[in-house]
Specification:
The protein has 95 residues and is an all-alpha fold. It has four helices and no strands. It is globular and about 50 Å long. The termini are far apart.
């Protein structure tokens, strides 16, 4: 029988990594098109938001698939840290 909760949890971290990879690919392309350095593009708030959402998804997914307590704590720390950083980034962008 298929454990659907595990499938969903794995889907979260896979989607998070796919989002991070897509963001890196897009901003690499954008840096080449605009003639700017990749470092400058990656330092922008739009990339930072995508990166943090991806890290949040990875943390949620890994905390759902972990078997040992220390793994759950580490993955939850990544998710909580990404969520806090995302909220702070959105608050500073709104000001």
């Amino acid at each position: 029988m298929i454990d659907w909760l595990t499938v969903v949890a794995h889907g979260f971290w896979i989607a998070g990594l796919a989002l991070i990879l897509a963001a890196l690919s897009y901003y690499y392309w954008l840096a080449g098109q605009e003639g700017r350095s990749l470092r400058r593009e990656l330092a922008g708030p739009s990339f930072q938001k995508l990166l943090l959402v991806g890290l949040l998804l990875v943390g949620i997914g890994l905390s759902g698939t972990s078997r040992q307590l220390w793994q759950v704590i580490a993955a939850a720390a990544v998710a909580v840290g990404a969520a806090i950083a995302l909220v702070l980034l959105w608050r500073t962008a709104a000001e």
